[in-house]
Task: structure prediction
Amino acid sequence: MKEQVNLKIDNLSVSVDEGTTILEAAKKINIRIPTLCHHEDLCVAGNCRVCVVEQAGLDRLQPACANPVSEGMEIFTNSLKVRNSRKQIIELLIAEHRAECTTCYKNGKCELQSLTNEYIVGENGFIPLVPLKGYTVDEFSPSIIKDDSKCIRCQRCVRTCDQIQSISALTVAHKGGEMKVSTFFEKPIYEVVCTNCGQCVNRCPTGALTEKVYINEVWDALYNPEKFVVVQTAPAVRIALGEALDMKPGEIVTGKMVAALRRIGFNAVLDTDFSADLTIIEEGNELLHRLKRALKDKDPDVKIPMTTSCSPGWIKFIEHTFPDMLENLSTAKSPQQMFGALAKTFYAQKMGVDPANMVSVSVMPCTAKKFEANRPEMRASGYQDVDYVVTTRELALMVKQAGIDFGSLPDDDYDSIMGESSGAAVIFGATGGVMEAALRTVYEVVTGREVPFDGLNITPVRGMENVREASIKIEDPVPEWDFLDGVEVKTCVAHGLSNAKKVMEAVKSGKADYHFIEIMACPGGCLGGGGQPLPTSPEIRKKRSEAIYREDSGKKIRKSHENPEIVQIYEEFLHEPLGHKSHELLHTNYVARQRY
Amino acid sequence: MLQTNETIKKLADKFGRKEESLLPILENVYEQKHIISEDDMVDIARELDISAAKVYGTATFYSFLETKKCGKYVIRICKTITCMMHGKNQIIKELEELLKVNLGETTPDGLFTLKETNCLGQCHKGPAMLINDAPFTELTPGKVRDIVNKYRQEEKQVAS
Result:
């Protein structure tokens, strides 16, 4: 047990573990010290100075986020000196920030704005420096917009890109007054190694980094009477959307979301979960196919382990970082793109809609999905398969724009077809979920029995640990898969790209002998995606994760291959997994990109 | 496909491939080429296996590492308050006329680049400037003309 340290904050006694910061100690007794550069997911920076506090006996104010407590310390978080300094610090930050709040996308959600509000920062602060600096706005990426005129140089984004994602597409360049957050040679974001994961967007306290917004394009399509507009909703949207609409983290709002989308005017409200189930069938069969080639046919060309391919941030990361390992990626498209390809083919045929007049919209917890939809490979239907991608945050805004009182909406059901899903699809939204969903199906295909876990809950692959390993021993397989008898299928799950990098390096160097690896680019999986409601923290992600597994266990169907609409689409349209049609519509290829 | 950059490879061999080797490598590249180019930065990133943006961030942080092409001699005039009160603006004006370039520019013959710098620690002897590593203090317009002429003549001798 750690040694306890006793101190006083604002005359209240508190006892905390050695090494705790003043900020954390204050939080423990419900004293909120304002912060900007500090973020629970990141290391201490101590550069914004808004968290300064007064320590008895010291003349200089101390940043609460960067100073550990010591025995007998006396801290004042609200003295006159602290208040005056803090106000001045905020005024200095505002002097370098393009504070045109009314026209900013982050208006009302900006951490700097709420501090100026709290400290009543008036107009008579410091001379605004923004007009003198010649800032640029980078709007070229389909996913992320970087507006330097709103950057307060807190470097949360830089730390995110480095520590969570191990990419460092963003860095701190120059120094002093010229210091700025920059890419390599100040190139546009779309030209550098950025994966579009949007974790920086999730952590930016101002409007300097935001997603590219496609709300108006979607409304235009909805108002156009000639267009048939379909919408799909990703698994992780339904457990987070409520947060952006005045609800608590962890509330499941599937029914209300469907009702809202219908009110907004979509012609068909369908589910990415359907195509998540389809992904499991295709990807699961691909895994078995690869195992067969490797273990039975002893084919030296087959690449094992196979890794998942649902996360577009992960895809772009491996394309940049391990361009020689692209054959390890499953060729199965992500659920969003499978859905897109089928919407303008299978669904359009069924419904008698001309695909030329169809607009396909997807609601995603993700900014990288915007990039994915724009990839040139994603035109299997003959059109752009997914036309517009909006984030969970953008959908929440659309609900507000439409004047819908979200909380009072009655629950509604998805349209059919391509609206039915299993619990296995729901858990795609959490780290470990794709693995669990795949194992539920693959194990049953191979052995004819359910996975040997209580209530189909494969708990070893669940949780928030950085890298998790699990293995399942195949016993008594059906004759077709007899070569797998006694084989221990080794799996690995990683979330966050820095963890993914470690796993892939282990695979590359031959230190790991996995068969199947699941990677999601964002911490916690899609539920912590770059398009999810703000703020994000380990606690909020845990609540979302619990909601996802709750939604799974509440589903009647828990296994992808038992989804009746999946059975139907194979009977009527696709005929067989990995078949001709599947290859045409549901599988893709990848491109090697520059690593540096 | 990729041409190996011998300069960078040799430097990486010499200083090692750890992140802390970045600064000595950058210094040496600049010494040899008077510029740290985009391509060289990518090659450094590749050798050390770090992000190219990090190399760029480090290279731009240090004012004595240049990421844009500079002259053989970089003249840096102290811009801080003491030198300003000692008349550094007249010195800059003189240099601009002498070299026929503005602050921040390089002469067409590639010989001189004119820049300002932060305090050189010669406040008691201002105005002060550096030409590459050599300091010059208590400058006057006349003194500056002599110094520049000396450099020009040396160059001519080397050339002939």
Summary: The longest strand of chain B covers residues 73-78. Residues 76 and 115 of chain B are 5 Å apart (CA to CA).
